[in-house]
Amino acid sequence: MLKIIIPTIMLMPLTWLSKKNMIWINTTTYSLLISLISLSLLNQPSNNSLNFSLMFFSDPLSAPLLVLTTWLLPLMLMASQHHLSKEPLIRKKLYITMLTMLQTLLIMTFTATELISFYILFEATLVPTLIIITRWGNQTERLNAGLYFLFYTLMGSLPLLVALISIQNLTGSLNFLLIQYWNQALPDSWSNIFLWLACMMAFMVKMPLYGLHLWLPKAHVEAPIAGSMVLAAILLKLGGYGMLRITTMLNPQTSFMAYPFLMLSLWGMIMTSSICLRQTDLKSLIAYSSVSHMALVIVAVLIQTPWSYMGATALMIAHGLTSSMLFCLANSNYERTHSRTMILARGLQTLLPLMAAWWLLASLTNLALPPSINLIGELFVVMSSFSWSNITIILMGTNITITALYSLYMLITTQRGKYTHHINSIKPSFTRENALMALHMTPLLLLSLNPKIILGFTY
Amino acid sequence: MNPLIFTTILMTVLLGTMIVMMSSHWLMIWIGFEMNLLAIIPILMKKYNPRTMEASTKYFLTQATASMLLMMAIIINLMHSGQWTITKVFNPTASIIMTSALAMKLGLTPFHFWVPEVTQGISLTSGLILLTWQKLAPMSILYQISPSINLNILLTMAVLSILVGGWGGLNQTQLRKIMAYSSIAHMGWMTAVLVYSPTLTMLNMLIYIMMTLTMFMLFIQSSSTTTLSLSHTWNKTPLTTTLILITLLSMGGLPPLSGFMPKWMIIQELTKNSSIILPTLMAIMALLNLYFYMRLTYSTSLTMFPSTNNMKMKWQFETKQITLLPPLIVMSSLLLPLTPMLSILD
Predict the structure, then answer these.
(1) How far apart are CA A395 and CA A382, in angstroms?
(2) Strand A57-58 to A50-51 pairing
(3) Which residues face A50 on adjacent strands?
(4) Of B268, B272, B281, B297, which to mutate for an interface test with A (greatest number of A Cβ within 10 Å)?
(5) Does A89 touch chain B (CB under 8 A)?
(6) Which of B267, B298, B303 is closest, CB to CB, to A165?
(7) Residue B345: band (very low, low, confident or very high) from pLDDT cuts 50, 70, 90
(8) Nearest to residue B138, comparing CAs of B80, B69, B82?
(9) What pLDDT digit, counting tens, does each position of A289-333 carry?
(10) Is residue A82 part of a domain?
(11) What is the pLDDT of residue B313?
(12) pLDDT surpasses 90 at A159
């Protein structure tokens, strides 16, 4: 694992020592090379996890997330080039350093063996993200957004720290590889109910669960493009990853403790999808769509069946790529019109047809069109929740319909129809932007040929 | 002040604390406290104006009362144990009186009222000495009598201090008062774990002193005493803004900075002793502290506060060279990976 971590750390001296005309080239190239190294992790032995050392391991759940993380850094760098072009050199280097620091911490989080180490790194990812949102965001609301982001996550995760330490006292070790073998049922008591809550709330806030999702629209909308990308693609998945790891220790309380959260997620996914239909702000629409997709993941994780775990993992990877691509597309609009209002830039298909193709593909994958991996994820989740309780099919079906509705609404509003007359002088699409979209879409489409690598450890 | 006299007085302050920390006779400890108190009054009053006079008077009165209470506890202890050696205190009444006296000296709730007002009335350097060096002597006595301290009183004072330190700092814009409330909250964390593991109290003291030293030195470098003047640092020394950000986040206890280490260790120690609600409550109340640190970082490093044109001329003056600042900054932010080395403190 050091073969990925140390090159990522060394990206920081690379940025600070590069010449002015080479920073983007250097960092993007080397981060792409690092992502190629991480691809080798996808070759997982079937029965156990790859154990690299006392501190790092990678198993079929964390390997795809790790590959997604390393794949995303060059994409973030490519997306940020335009809005940073007018900043002084030191600030560009600071921005890239923040992204690299965040990347290192994320890689270490996904491969951490010990749960306390996972916790420390999970919290540590907050600091660079906070700095990116509040320092480089564009509107005054970014200050409030950063505070909401920081305090919602910290309020949820401090009980997690206490819970992890008390589990360590009870069982002797928090090494994940050991715990999966000597797991025993938690005795039924009030304090174990609070233990369950303490363990899960941190990840619920991070996912986010419907009632605790208030930080997400603020943070996603106010962040600059790289911030939005990393938030949507990876940081939400930290919550899902944490839940998948920690539910192994929390049986049998999960069977009854999960009900309130299941209800909130099932209702919440419909609520947030419906809100998407009424959004005027493009980034806000994509942010609420993220909440809706993540609610599906929460449902899948709480049901705890092999198929639902496969669906959750596939959905996390698929949503990461799709959401990040949608944010890049929204940003390409924003850079031209400097406004996030959807109806200001309509009919873009006549002006930028290639970008319209990317918009089409992104919207189609967002609404889970077969045979994309989004469909595989959603289908598995729908099927397993149907087997858990037949009535959920009504809610799931409604959600899929409304998801299709708002994805097509977004596509048609921005791309089709007569173009608004004030945008006929926008710049054509840059090759960099087209490359960005292609790099998002290609893994997504290729994975539909071999989805078993993203189906997680219950495959 | 005449440098020779200033050196003598400063040495007396140091000597007083040393006497407290190294004595085995209760009377010598009281003498050390008095020496410390008398010698620090001129240091607090380096500038001669009514504000510092008021602050020094308040400090003198509270500390003298605390020393008298300490003396009474020593005498009661003498009555019941017949000897002057400092070990654990042999009588519950004496223990309670001594704990209250030391809490008054440290600034724990409900004896915290003097801390913000005294810190605000004196200069930044004197405030630095007040909030760091002056805490060493009472803490060392608490360490030595820790087996006999009444747990209920100590934990109540600790939790209330964390609450007061958090809530009191919320409405402040003056940097010295913010540091005073931060000191009250950190003292609360330190005394909460005193009975369970005094080593962790010392660890927390060490890291708290490092972080407070760093913060004060960063303030001294930009000669800023209000949030507004701190917000001009982006103009004068842009690097300082990053350093203020890192140190404030460390004081708030965010991983992966070193301010997280004492909180983590204290939560671990308290959980091992089967108190679960207490550390959860303490950790959540520390978020109040983090809020006003974040507000400081917002005005300093994460936004560019608007400033008038004369503010932009400040770069023409020489920047102060503070030699101790770089190692302090490194230590107050990067020590977390060294946590396994804590075994050397035992």
Answers:
(1) 10
(2) antiparallel
(3) A58
(4) B268
(5) no
(6) B267
(7) confident
(8) B69
(9) 999 999 999 999 999 999 999 999 999 999 999 999 999 999 999
(10) yes
(11) 66
(12) yes
Has residue B1 got a pLDDT over 90? Answer: no
Neighbours of A71 (CB within 10 A): 23
Among the listed residues B119, B114, B116, B100, the one whose alpha carbon sits nearest the alpha carbon of residue B44: B119
Supply B14's token pair: 């140091």
Q: Does A276 touch chain B (CB under 8 A)?
A: no
- Give the pair of three-digit tokens for residue B305: 């506060």
Q: Which of A134, A135, A162 sits opposite B267 (nearest CB)?
A: A162
SS (H, E, C) A360-385: HHHHHHHCCCCCCHHHHHHHHHHHHH
Angle formed by the axes of helices B260-272 and B175-192, nearest 10°: 30
Q: By the CB < 8 Å criterion, does A165 face chain B?
A: yes
Say if A339 falls within a structural domain. yes
Closest-CA distance of chain B to residue A167, Å: 10
Contact between chains at B271 and A162 (C-beta distance less than 8 A): yes
**Dihedral angle sign, alpha carbons of residues A342, A347, A350, A351:** negative
Amino acid at A110: F
Chains A, B: CB contacts within 8 A come to 71
The larger pLDDT score, comparing residue A345 to residue B266, is at B266
Q: Which helix (H) or strand (E) holds B117?
A: helix B114-121
Full-model pTM: 0.93
**With a cut of 0.95, is the ipTM above it?**
no
Q: Which SS3 state, helix, strand or coil, does residue A114 take? A: strand
A354 belongs to a structural domain? yes
> Would you call A191 an interface residue with chain B, using a CB distance cutoff of 8 Å?
yes
Closest-CA residue of A relative to B274 is: A166
Domain ranges (residues) in chain B: 88-344
CB contact under 8 A, A154 and B290: yes
| B24 C-beta neighbours (distance < 10 Å), count | 11
Q: A135 near A33, Cβ under 8 Å?
A: no
Give me the pLDDT at residue A182, please: 75
Model confidence band, residue B88 (pLDDT cutoffs 50, 70, 90): confident
Q: What is the mean pLDDT of residues B255-273?
A: 93
Host domain of residue A424 = 1-43+53-454
Instruction: Check whether B315 has a pLDDT greater than 70.
Output: no
Q: Is residue B38's pLDDT more than 90? A: yes
Burial class (CB in 10 A: 0-12, 13-18, 19+), A39: middle
Nearest CA distance, B135 vs chain A (angstrom): 28
